[in-house]
Amino acid sequence: MKEQKPMQIKPTPTVITAWIANYVPEKDVFFLTEEQYKKLTNTFAILAMPIDEFFNHSTYNQIHYTNSYEYWNIKRAQYVIIAESGWIEQLSNAERTKILMAQLQCERGMTVPLSFIQNRQDVPADYIHDGHVILQRAMWEKMSSSTKVQLLETMVYEWWDKGECKELPVNAPIFLREFANTFGTKQGSNCLAAVLYAVTEGKCSWIIDEWIHQNTFLEKLKQCHYQNIETKTLVKGDVAVWQDTDGVIQHAAYCIGENLFFNKHGQTIFNPWKILSKSQLDKEWSQLNMLTYRVI
Description:
endopeptidase fold (from Nostoc punctiforme); 3-stranded antiparallel β-sheet; single chain; elongated
């Protein structure tokens, strides 16, 4: 049977409103080299941390900071400064420019191409450098709602997810209807959480918003009577797990039958829960070893 063409989803107005409120953290975080940090003059109202201490900090290691600033991309930074949102606007033009340019150089999150923004007059000029806009809380609050909506929608499709998915079949489990082919509003929900929500048939709905790690995931599968079996042919209710050569789980998805799966790629708000076909998943994960878990 020929595979149906994918549909395309987009974030709803309710989701976009939540993104606008939460995407840019209330405190500003700036990543600097040691040389850049030592040249700062207005340091009274900030906290400065060596980057190793920062990444282990109980406050700044929380998921909304991690995902918005995209810690995994940070390069060439030795110090981090934390400031209230108004601090950056109290600096001289020269010092503010140096700090904002440093965010581009270290490849920090929330730096977007100026081309992503249609109404460029809505962006304060002080935050535009080298063809990019460096998003910070104070400037974010000054931008119009229409520009924020347009920018967030552009970011999703250009960087995170094209929104392509399959329709949820009419005979699919009822508990999937709330989440299938939707974007979320909370940072941190990952693929393993999506699978555990499904294997518990939605009875533990709060699990879907969790960031689940490998051993927790495997323990819950065991509790739900799932076992690894020797087959690559999946049926309704099975769990597909993709594992690297070190035995680390990189992805998982829940089979709803007819070669369709309930799936989530990534742990950000910009990664939706989607219904995908097996062929779509294979394109992404075929280089890894697929395991099948089934209720026995």
